[in-house]
Amino acid sequence: MIVASGTFGFGEEYEDFIDLNQLGAMIPKGISLKPMMGNLPPRIFETEGGILNSIGLQNPGFRYFIKNKLPFYRNIKTHLIVNFFGNTPREYIELAKRLDEVPGISGLEMNISCPNVKRGGMVFGSDPKMAHHLVCEVRKATRLTLLVKLSPNVTDIARIAKGVEDGGADAVSLINTFRAMAVNIHSRKAELGNMIGGLSGPPIKPIALRMVWETVQAVKIPVIGMGGIMKAEDAIEFILVGASAVQIGSANLVNPRTAIEVIDGIEKYLVKNQINHVRKLTGLFKPHLL
Ligand SMILES: Cc1cc2nc3c(=O)[nH]c(=O)nc-3n(C[C@H](O)[C@H](O)[C@H](O)COP(=O)(O)O)c2cc1C
Q1: Are strands 245-248 and 189-190 parallel, antiparallel or unpaired?
Q2: Catalytic position from the list 2, 114, 117, 161
């Protein structure tokens, strides 16, 4: 069980609510080489059943993260996977190199999928060739386990995943948020300062599930599923269609104990169905009706 980037702060915010040692891995807010201020407020808007955000990758930057945030993770047994991004390919490579030298990091999650920044992020994740080349270069820069986080704002996510796999990624995680917007009919302005943001939460779950299913069939590397997981049953759906692990995102903002409750629920399901390890649940989906 993994908690998704941007929805779990830097972990410390959640230690009063759950035992962080029970999580499989934590992925803190995405970091860049230099600090970033993010987008104009308002940056969060609640939609029916979901969340629209345009944080714009606000973060304190690599140096601050290493000095002030990383020490917190040293006392926790859970794996730390650092989510990172760059505005240019060179920045991605440089950051991967620097993170490679830092002790205490189990893996990297390379974000090529942020929908609400002008440069970086999604630009690299929308084209299979660009994604492939970038992953090739980052792969050379780090020996750490490399996850690549994919954007759903594409026609064929499985093709992107294949390009990323061929570039040397160890796993893909999907999905990031959908480009979306909301309008206030009284002011007639956009609800978000950046106008366009990313939609997450329950409304995106069926699409995320379809994308995970398609990706699982296209690649051999593990697929980490996410998108609208609120409860154990949701997570089980992702695992059944072939996800090797799942991430909990927006649900952390609604109920900080979601990840633990989902772990408990999956355990109960396994016991009830006499399955002795969650790994054996992966891919048990029956694609044919009969
Ligand atoms: C407020 C907020 C901030 C996010 N920040 C990041 C981020 O910095 N890097 C990243 O890769 N994904 C980020 N995401 C995307 C989530 O990690 C996740 O991919 C997405 O929300 C879909 O999962 P969910 O429906 O369970 O939330 C953010 C999502 C939200 C809601």
Answers
A1: unpaired
A2: 114
Is any atom of ligand 1 closer than 6 Å to the C-beta of 202? no
What distance in angstroms lies between residue 167's CA and the mean position of ligand 1's atoms? 24
CA–CA gap between residue 171 and residue 16 (Å, rounded): 31
Mean pLDDT of the chain: 96
- Rounded to whole angstroms, the Cα distance separating 224 from 248 reads 11
How far is the C-alpha of 43 from the C-alpha of 253, rounded, in Å?
A: 14
For residue 119, give the H/E element and its range.
none
| 1, 19 Cβ separation under 8 angstroms | no
Least confident of 128-132, 142-146, 230-234: 128-132
Ligand 1 pocket, residue 56 CB under 6 Å:
no
With a CB cutoff of 8 Å and minimum separation 6, the contacts of 162 are: 128, 218, 219
Count other C-beta atoms under 10 Å from residue 63's C-beta: 13
How far is CA 196 from each of CA 143, 188, 225, rounded to the nearest angstrom?
36, 15, 24
Q: What's the pLDDT at 245? A: 98
Please list the alpha-helical segments (H only) found in 121-173: 122-125, 128-141, 157-166
Tell me, yes or no, if 136 is annotated catalytic. Answer: no
The pLDDT value recorded for residue 156 is: 96
Between helices 89-100 and 128-141, what is the axis angle to 10°? 30
Q: Which residue from 148, 176, 211 has its CB within 8 A of the most atoms of ligand 1, so it is best to mutate?
A: 176
